Request: fold
Amino acid sequence: MKDNLKAIFSSYAEIFFLPSGAAGAIIFAVTLVKPSLALAGIISVLSAYGFARLVRMEKPFLQSGYYTYNPLLVGLSLGNLFQLGSLTIFFLVCAGIFTFLATVFLANVFWTYLRLPILSLPFVVVSSIAYLASLRYSNLLVAAPHSAGLLQAGLSLPYWLAGFFKAFGAVLFVPSVGVGIVLSAVLLRYSRILFLLALFGFYSGAIIRSLMLGSTHQAFADLNNFNFIFLAMAVGGVFLVPSLTSYLMAFIGVAISTVLMDAITGFWSYYGIPAFTLPFNVVTLGLIYVLGLLLHPMVATVVGRTPEETLENYLANRMRYRGQSYTLYLPFSGQWTVWQGWDGQWTHKGSWRYAYDFVITDDHGKTHSGDGTRLENYYCFNKPVLSPVRGRVVQTSDDLPDNRIGDADETNNWGNLVIIQDTRGLFVEISHFAEKSVRVKKGDWVERGAVLGLCGNSGYSPQPHIHIQVQATETIGAPSLPFSFVSYAAEGEYQANSLPPVNRPVEPLYRDKRLDHITNFVLDDELNYEVLRAGQKTSEFTLKVQMAPDGTFYLQSPRGQLYFGKHEGTFYIYRVTGNDPWLRLLFLALPRLPLAYREKLAWHDYVPVGLVASGPVETVIGFFSSLYPRLATVKVNQCFAGENRVEASIEASILREQKTATVELDRHKGFVSITLDDITLRRVSHEA
Amino acid sequence: MKRPYEKPIINKLHTGLMNKFGRSPAYARKVRSEIDGASIDSLVEKYGSPLFVYSERCLRQKHRQMHTAFSTRYPNVVMGWSYKTNYLSAICAIMHQQGSIAEVVSEMEYQKARAAGIPGEKIIFNGPHKSLAALEKAVKEGAIINVDHLDEIYDLEQITQKLKRKIHIGIRLNLDAGIYPQWSRFGFNLETGQALDAVKRIKQGGKLILNGLHCHIGTFIMETSAYAKEIEKMVGFAYEVEKTFDFSIEYLDIGGGFPSKSRLKGVYLPPEVALPSIDEYAEAITHALSKALRPGDFPKLILESGRALVDEAGYLITSVVASKRLADGTRAYVADAGLNLLFTSFWYKFNIEMDREVGGINEHSVIYGPLCMNIDILDEGVLLPPLTRGTRLIISPVGAYSQTQSMQFIEYRPAAVLVGEKGEVDLIREAEDLTDINRREKLPKRLALSSAK
Reply:
């Protein structure tokens, strides 16, 4: 019952892009100012919900309200039009189910072919159809108008303010100042960004229209203005990451939609149909489709529960995960130096711009000893070349001679080479092997780090080096594709996934058995901790390893979940949910851990600002970081202070002073203790 | 100048003929007037003779060379500086700066490493004698402990009970790597099943966790294939242990034994010709690793190098204090350094250079040390021109073991200096005097001479 109620209330919240069932309950209560309207709405939702259960739509699909807010809007629009009677109820049930079908149909078509959400398009379609049909249903009785008291209240407010609240109320077909005030208060409670966008959208649209129409009062009083409110919220805060760019897009969208709105109202009204939310739908979908097509960076890849959450995740993740999705290990062992990177100055151009060259250099930056006239003088000559991926060897050659120094083979540019198709489907091409040095053959399966052959000077290579690129086919010389390198050290700093710049010395780090084992949390493992504050034990808790339906693992505490995982040589804490302060502390103290040890190896990470801010501060940052992202930057600098000890300092512009944290790794598994400021979490009985 | 009188003798002369290395035996001279820019004269003037001199440039270069040779061929290499080879603090500091951890074989060496500021987890504790107290300290400080014998296993189990926690250990293996002599006195023998029994015992006890294997096949190994054989056997054993006993072998410590460019007595070819380069050792070892290890498995490879890093960086300056003719007519010299400082001269024929050009024809000569002992011979057959008193001889390479094995027998031990990369000279060990000899002695009052101060 509770679940069902929550699902139904979620339909109400979803209209305003809000997540919570509680917000939905308040909005439902608001509709009660006109009981017949409220009843019409709930009948429509229930019939859609009931039909969904009848056709055995699974619960998870229904819980969000995603499929039922359109039936709700249709129900409200019809309830606004007709008195409730058995016939009207029948009509509402039909309309509810119809909207539900339209929603599922359109949602699937839009998502499959356009990668777009459907917004309230089904509502527009079905309500228009219902309005058209109802023109002939003389047995349906026209509803009583809203009580005068409801509509008149609050009109003492200036027209430009009353207009805003009325437009807000008009969303629920109750254009009353009071309803508008309650709704905007709910919005303000859940998201400051949405609230401000609502104001911004309304006034931008109203001012533009007042200039165009020449009548300020008419422009501000138009109930269709809720289109601007929704457009600004959807574009500025929901589908784009809140930022100056998204606000600008919201403004542009509002400006365009004023034109569309006047066109539609003019045309539609001929048939007695209101414009509903059509201008909002058309402009919003058009804008996000085009921005998505252009791979605009501000299009939100993960939409949070509120714009604040979208922004916080975006800001933390943008800094956190920098590399490409296609990742390689460095194709050698020990310290080499980047000779040429992407868009290099010599050969990495055009179709072959995504490629790397590596050499070995000495303390003076030279690639050879002596005068460098002989191949053997070159430090990297005849050094092993290792497989950067796990996969199958699809092509090899090693019959070309090594060029004399300074010469290059212009006929066989790629020289002796190995091409590997890796498990993700792409092909990795490595060039310039020494003559007769390739140790693998076509069809061999290779793991990361397997010796492929020796570095040489064949092909278009004036001095011995390794060339590496990724391509979509196994053809020699195929166009290159972007990639990045994982798990390496560069000048004492650990890089989890990035592209080293030219002349940077880099050394690959392979997974260390010990650290791998320490971070190997297996399902149902239980970890008991006690909390010490300034040395005094205050409480105890237990963490248990569990798996989410999407396959990610998390530590379950009584009050929250901490998601973690390993990717290409790094242990990450991905995110925290719930409100467990100790899980948040753990996230802050150890957002990531390299699975390879080098003395004093340092690294840094960024975490969501919510880990260090709370209450009003978080609220203020939540909005202002959309204008000034650095406000939300929380940088965690870490380093190995010993084989089993990680030290961290946490820097954030909102923190008055740096925080420091220490994590003691257990010799067997997990963490012995985590200390942040004066709080220590200590493992209880961690060893037999 | 009036030449000192010398009784005439007759010497067979081979004029104009060259030996097979292209030099005339009659006039070949090896002269060294400086070490990395520091002149022999000024060194002796300031620090006295004899004098140990170390080249920082050479130390760092050797370390870099070896690290690069291995790390560019295998992605998980750790070097452990073998303290016993030369544990002068300055030498150790340079090695640690270059990235080596410490490899010690006694309580004294362990303490020396700790005193130098090396944390326990960066010390490999080897050796056949580890006292219970030393073991306990090493366990507490997280040192890497390689067990030599069963009694040490019992000791460690006792410590686990005291500390109430499990201990990670490695065990030392000895095995047949196809070379002679086969060292079998250290660790547990592989071929006879001793090692497997030891692992069984460790598992049975349930208190120790085996996470590493150690082996050291010998010293001055001139055959790269011996290491390949060692690796093959160690990896095979590691996998057997992992499979049977559910231990995870995190490191393979293959010991040291890499030669320096020193000349063993009885080896005909000069070291430059007879010895493989460090790259050849690295190639053989890492190739064997890639053949033996499972794909994608890279346990830590620990190298315990000493001689190959430090030997060629060390010189001993000694002065001729007297010359004489032996009864058979052989020319002989007495130097102020002998077996007391170069115990290693029993096995190695050192390179002997003079600090100045000396005229005259080379003669088969013997160099004696200063000890009043018949066995104190630095070199019993070296071609030298007639040397005058005060000529300085520069003996090399003597960086390995000479310093640590030198003794206070009859003579004081001399000073040691380090020539920096820019030619600057630092005193790293003062010359000894009587207080060093007497400091630990206790004289019962009743024996004291009344005239003693």
